[in-house]
Write a structure and sequence with these properties.
The chain is mainly alpha-helical and 315 residues long. Helix content is 75%, strand content 4%. The longest helix has 36 residues.
């Protein structure tokens, strides 16, 4: 354990997903493939939305582009460090590096939660008030909503960092995870952390739960509206809502499980952490592209345009 003046911990040891060298090499290859899929999939959506004027003018795809950008950045907070740690026995992170991971993890994670709530509101207006949709969801409002999501994420993440930075660390420095996060870090503090853990639940836990319940309620209203008022275009609307609900569940269920219960930890926490930071960002592009005809059409159009640019004399 590395200390400064024998009192202050200056780095943490990450226990990671495995201590077996052979298993670590196997996990390195698996998660490397996952990371490549995350980067390529989310970049594809960002580039496709930016390159297609029709998609860029649509509020839903405008928000989707931002969601993919957040997923891309979120994976970069944890996965590169995890891949590097798979190839070495000593997995450590400095105190400032740990704070940086906590900041960006919660900044991007909270921004994504707020953005998913905005996307639910967008679908509500589109389905329940279609004649006024483009008037209500104009470009100015979309910009304001995205800006509010980023501001909300910033406020949330700063709160998390303040909770951690004031704690004294002078004892054990082993984190039973593959990245730094508030629940594991505060348990290593040399003080009674009851109040801090309650504040963590009040901040991260309730934020996840409230956003999740609001999203579920909004989609229930949308589904009831589809059932009672509309028949034409119902299948397309249902497909869109199903995609959104799938993504919402993949993100919020792990977050609620991890952050809404202080004072205890389970071995399955690492599984939920992997789901939140790796699996969900990888699956989001597949969910939104495979179930969305407009996205598939735009991707094909972008591919043909790229082929025509690279091979101008072909055909």
């Amino acid at each position: 354990m590395k200390k400064e003046n024998d009192t202050k911990v200056t780095e943490f040891v990450l226990l990671g997903l495995s201590s077996t060298w052979e298993l670590q090499l196997f996990l390195f290859l698996i998660f490397l493939l996952f990371y490549v899929a995350i980067v390529l999939g989310n970049l594809l959506i960002v580039v496709t939305v930016r390159a297609d004027a029709h998609l860029l003018q649509s509020p839903m795809y405008y928000f989707l582009g931002h969601l993919s950008f957040i997923d891309l950045c979120l994976s970069c907070v944890t996965v590169p460090k995890m891949l590097g740690d798979f190839l070495q026995q000593n997995k450590t992170v400095g105190f400032l590096g740990c704070l940086a991971q906590i900041y960006f993890l919660h900044f991007l994670g909270a921004s994504e939660m707020f953005l998913l709530t905005v996307m639910a509101y967008d679908r509500y207006v589109a389905i329940c008030n279609p004649l006024q949709y483009l008037t209500v969801m104009n470009r100015h409002l979309c910009l304001q909503l995205v800006f509010a999501c980023w501001c909300g994420g910033f406020i949330h993440s700063i709160t998390q960092v303040i909770l951690v930075i004031q704690l004294p660390f002078c004892g054990p420095n082993e984190l039973d995870n593959f990245y730094c996060d508030v629940p594991q870090v505060i348990k290593l503090a040399c003080m009674d952390t009851y109040v801090v853990e309650v504040l963590m639940v009040s901040n991260s836990g309730l934020l996840s739960l409230v956003c999740f319940l609001v999203l579920l309620f909004s989609y229930v209203v949308i589904l009831i509206t589809l059932r009672t008022r509309f028949r034409q275009g119902r299948s397309k609307a249902l497909s869109t809502c199903a995609s959104h609900l799938t993504v919402v569940s993949l993100i919020f269920v792990p977050c609620v499980f991890i952050y809404l219960r202080p004072f205890c930890s389970f071995s399955v926490d690492k599984v939920f952490s992997v789901f939140y930071t790796v699996i969900t960002p990888m699956l989001n592009p597949l969910i939104y592209t495979l179930r969305n005809a407009d996205m598939k059409k735009a991707v094909k159009k972008l591919r043909k345009k790229h082929v025509a640019t690279c091979c101008p004399f072909e055909g």
